[in-house]
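Progress against Task 2.4 (sequence-to-structure conversion) is shown through the following example record, which the project officer requested during the mid-term review.
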Amino acid sequence: MIKKTLTTLLAVMFLAGTAAVISGCNTVEGAGKDIEKGGEAIKDKANEHK
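Structure tokens generated for the chain above:
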């Protein structure tokens, strides 16, 4: 009984961790793209004022 409960708990924890990592990658990628666009806008404004 305890072994089955522990196995189920570990499986659920593994799946939750995997889901968090997968969604985290997408979030970080999107944030990186947003930051890159912001940097390009700053660089363009700086080039206008040279």
